[in-house]
């Protein structure tokens, strides 16, 4: 029987089709997985490349006719630039809102139906709304940040890089511009710099001006804190509260710094501007220094001092009494005064109270000692509401809040109480009737009595509202009233007394005069009573003859010359002769100029005293000049501020005109830098503009 033959001679073993398909599927799955990983890797690299390299860093938010607002996503900044991006007006760091470590694209406009508005919710922390207003010469961006939750602090910082900033508040050692100032974050309110040397003083306005042609105006109705980091930035910060207080400000840009300021003035001061009593400009102010313990002694000292002024041929002036001397005079027995007025003898006629024969200024404050009869009477007759008070319980009795003033425990006038204001005005009227004075100095408005003691103030007295209300009351006293603090009141017919300075050559002394002058006038406070010649902060008499002379040379060009140290006390006859000469020069040359430009200030708001950039607003050299000033557009004053110097460098701004030295009639082109220009001790460099 033959052997049966194998029907499948192939050496390949038999396999089922299911097994082959399974092995093939596993192979393809591995390949597909590898391909997916590769695709994912490529996509990740692409996304990273798009976010880091390819995605534009700038996002245009709003566009005007010549400027636009940009979001810089890497720096968390809002930037206002020209549309051509060839000039940056301002850079605002808003990275302090929300989580600064999270990059926010900031591109989705929730107000997309309106091309002049931008809305966004930031990191579930704050909502921002920005609106653009286009004017003929300026474009303004109004910004409002509102916290989403309670107790959120909103903070925006304005860069100082390539921008010189001006405005804000006075500080000890005033600088011009403010870029070199340092201040910890603190409430932006006026404080007494003598008691709080690291705080903010008068004058203070919520207004900042940048040399790039930018103006920042902060809403007057919100609590505000301010901090300055020298040469880096200044920051606006809201106060956290249950009310979710917003942070509101407007940024306006213009072609240059002068145009930006002129637009800001129209927005900042919408009241008609009034002039104070201009007769005060013609009179030097003399401070009566001696300490006395009775009214008759004050009167005798007035007589002695007046006779000395006449004997030294210093002319008519205003003799200033401090608050203590004012109190002594006001407490004099009025029957005694009246009997002297009725006296028939020549002796009694000659001995009339000198206050009826001379210009004097008295000093008052809204404080009243708790040991005085007037205060105890107010508690007895139910007028305790005349003083700043808080209720002892929600419906409890009012308890006056005590503070200290001039070393005594006092209460402070409730300026929101019409009865209290009438009582104070009646007191001033009584003093005017008995003493015949024309000038009244109101001290003590600085600070917030409640906030200084960590007490919640009434809504009507939050922040600096007390100062504004006191200025209203001062206006009712008359246009010869002098206040020591100014905020939101530059349009009122008042004089503002500048903060006292040290008797030295430092920025807290002589070198601080011009920066302080330019600061005040930029904010609208043109009618100044400068600190006394030689400085009065210490209260001591000035013994440095050279310092006295150089100080006198500056103040002769200011609205008023005031003295703390009589010239016959400091130095030899030369000091007295120079004092006579500069008082005469002030009356002959300076006062008419001030009166001329006071009319311009009333019409336009342009300052009387102007910085160098006013005539050359695009010249970077002028942005930081802090030792020269202009009176109007026609007189440039360049005093010597260094001890022992008889020469100085002077820059004459360029505006298509020439300058003539008032001493020797030399003529120089605008834009000229005069190096080591001679200025003898008894002189000051003054240049007159020639068309």
Q: What gap, in angstroms, lies between the N and C termini?
A: 142 Å
Structure classification: alpha+beta
Q: Share of helix among residues?
A: 25-40%
Rg estimate, integer Å? 35 Å
Task: Please work out how many helical segments DSSP would assign.
Answer: 13
Main β-sheet description: 8 strands, antiparallel
- Flag low-confidence runs: 1-22, 47-55, 333-353
Sequence of strands across the biggest β-sheet: 1-2-3-4-8-14-13-10
The counted number of beta strands is 36
Shape: globular
Average pLDDT score: 87
Strand content: 15-25%
What labels would you give this structure?
single chain, 691 residues, alpha+beta, eight-stranded antiparallel beta sheet, eight-stranded parallel beta sheet, 36 strands, globular, disordered N terminus, membrane, Glyco_hydro_b
């Amino acid at each position: 029987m033959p052997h049966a033959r194998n029907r499948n001679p192939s050496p390949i073993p038999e396999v089922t089709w299911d097994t082959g398909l399974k092995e093939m599927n596993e192979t393809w799955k591995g390949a597909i997985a590898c391909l997916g990983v590769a695709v994912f890797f490529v996509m990740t690299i692409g996304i990273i490349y798009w976010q880091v390299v390819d995605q534009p860093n700038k996002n245009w938010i709003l566009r005007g006719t010549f400027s636009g607002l940009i979001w810089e996503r890497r720096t968390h900044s809002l930037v206002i630039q020209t549309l051509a991006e060839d000039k940056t007006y301002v850079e605002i760091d808003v990275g302090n809102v929300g989580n600064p470590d999270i990059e926010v694209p900031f591109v989705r406009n929730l107000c997309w139906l309106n091309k002049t508005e931008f809305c966004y919710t930031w990191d579930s922390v704050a909502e921002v709304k920005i609106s653009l207003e286009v004017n003929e010469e300026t474009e303004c961006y109004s910004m409002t940040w509102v916290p989403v939750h309670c107790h959120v602090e909103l903070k925006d910082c304005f860069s100082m890089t390539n921008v010189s900033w001006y405005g804000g508040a006075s500080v000890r050692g005033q600088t011009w511009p403010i870029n070199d100032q340092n201040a910890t974050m603190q409430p932006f309110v006026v404080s007494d710099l003598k008691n709080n040397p690291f705080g903010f003083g008068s004058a203070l306005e919520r207004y900042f001006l940048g040399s790039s042609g930018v103006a920042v105006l902060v809403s007057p109705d919100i609590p505000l804190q301010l901090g300055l980091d020298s040469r880096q930035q200044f920051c606006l910060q809201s106060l956290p509260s249950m009310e979710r207080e917003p942070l509101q400000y407007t940024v306006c840009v213009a072609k240059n710094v002068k145009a930006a300021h002129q637009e800001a003035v129209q927005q900042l001061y919408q009241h008609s501007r009034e002039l104070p009593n201009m007769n005060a400009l013609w009179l030097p102010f003399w401070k009566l220094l001696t300490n006395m313990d009775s009214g008759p002694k004050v009167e005798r000292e007035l007589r002695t001092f007046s006779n000395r002024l006449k004997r030294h041929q210093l002319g008519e002036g205003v003799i200033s009494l401090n608050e203590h001397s004012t109190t002594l005079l006001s407490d004099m027995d009025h029957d005694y005064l009246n009997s002297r007025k009725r006296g028939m003898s020549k002796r009694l006629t000659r001995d009339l109270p000198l206050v009826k024969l001379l210009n004097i200024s008295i000093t008052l404050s809204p404080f009243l000692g708790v040991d005085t009869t007037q205060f105890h009477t107010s508690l007895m007759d139910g007028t305790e509401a005349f003083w700043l008070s808080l209720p002892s319980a929600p419906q409890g009795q009012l308890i006056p809040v005590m503070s200290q003033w001039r070393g005594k425990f006092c209460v402070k006038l409730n300026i929101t109480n019409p009865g209290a204001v009438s009582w104070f005005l009646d007191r001033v009227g009584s003093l005017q009737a008995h003493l015949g004075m024309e000038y009244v100095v109101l001290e003590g408005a600085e600070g917030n009595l409640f906030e200084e003691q960590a007490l919640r103030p009434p809504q009507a007295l939050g922040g600096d509202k007390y100062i504004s209300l006191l200025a209203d009351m001062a206006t009712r006293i008359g246009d010869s009233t002098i206040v020591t603090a100014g905020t939101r009141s530059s349009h009122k017919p008042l004089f503002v007394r500048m903060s006292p300075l040290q008797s030295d050559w430092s920025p807290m002394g002589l070198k601080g005069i011009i920066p302080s002058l330019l600061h005040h006038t930029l904010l609208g406070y043109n009618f100044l009573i400068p600190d006394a010649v030689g400085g009065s902060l210490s209260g001591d008499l000035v013994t440095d003859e050279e310092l006295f002379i150089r100080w006198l040379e500056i103040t002769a060009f200011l609205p008023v010359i005031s003295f703390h140290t009589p010239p016959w006390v400091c130095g030899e006859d030369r000091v007295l002769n120079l004092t006579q000469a500069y008082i005469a020069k002030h009356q002959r040359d300076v006062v008419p100029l001030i009166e001329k430009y006071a009319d311009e200030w009333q019409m336009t708001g342009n300052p009387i005293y102007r910085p160098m950039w006013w005539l050359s607003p695009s010249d970077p050299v002028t942005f930081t000049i802090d030792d020269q000033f202009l009176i109007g557009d026609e007189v440039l004053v360049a005093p010597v501020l260094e001890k022992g110097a008889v020469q100085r460098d002077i820059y004459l701004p360029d505006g298509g005109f020439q300058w003539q030295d008032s001493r020797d009639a030399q003529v120089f082109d605008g834009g000229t830098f005069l190096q080591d220009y001679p200025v003898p001790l008894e002189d000051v460099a003054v240049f007159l503009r020639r068309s």
